[in-house]
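Reading is simple: each integer encodes one residue's backbone shape. The lines below illustrate:
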Amino acid sequence: MTRSPLKETTTPLQTDFAALHVLKCVHDARSIRGAAEALDKNQSTISYTIDRLRQTFDDPLFVRLGRGIVPTPRCTAIVKGAEELLARFETLLAVEEFDPSVSGDRITLSCNFYERSIFLPRLMSQIRKDAPNIRLIVIQANSEGHRQLENGECDVVIAPLTAEASGIYSSELLRERYACFVAPGSRFTREPLTLTAFEKSKHILVRHAPHWRPYYRETLDRLGVSLDIALEVPSFGIVDHIVENCDLIFTASAGFERIFSPRLTMIPAPFDCDFPIRMSWAARTHKSPSHVWLRSLISQIASDLRKEGGN
């Protein structure tokens, strides 16, 4: 006794849009051959698809009448529903139109004091002009930007991040160099700040988190230079008010001159070190029109800042 070949079974969830499109074509053409010609496929491929749909819907779908085939009432109902599904699917495939002037999106931006100071005024000015209904929420990044992106706590990070993570996109906005900031009456406004004098001076350090270290500390380690920290604070907020009235040196991005001038005087750092400020975002918003718009706005602001800074 020979066994008949096992009959392939299908489940409803295995039905795809391509199969429904084949069903619609056969229904419209009232012919397997006509559908095959319209779709530029073999008749056997069309027949196989219809057989699978017969199993899925437990209905013959088409019955022979004379030399042709006619759909069953169940087939006609399925095709009508399939047309609606296919139309909705094509709508989903279409590129979403984005009009900033009417968008009411809510976007969360993560950054630190420096990035807020140089980007946020310009960013909000443009948003208020072009997209007055967008709500921008700003949170503190510290050194947690990538974790915030991965956890969905924010949509965009602007910070000097270097670590790469799966599912995160990143682009460099600015390349910053370190400088030193001193009180206008400091002796270093009249004489060079050498590396030896730098090491012997008292410093103010901003530490965002317990284990965070600014990039320039690695350069100083290689040079064998240690800092004599007189004051450690958690943010940049009042650094300029402190330094202008004492002999402390504050080492930070040269871009802080935009923020601290004329309260503090910027002088060249006695070492060479730079670092990137990057914009990072997660894959989940990579193609979102409103997020693409916001990121392009941030990139344009960065371009303007580079031109103004001569970079």
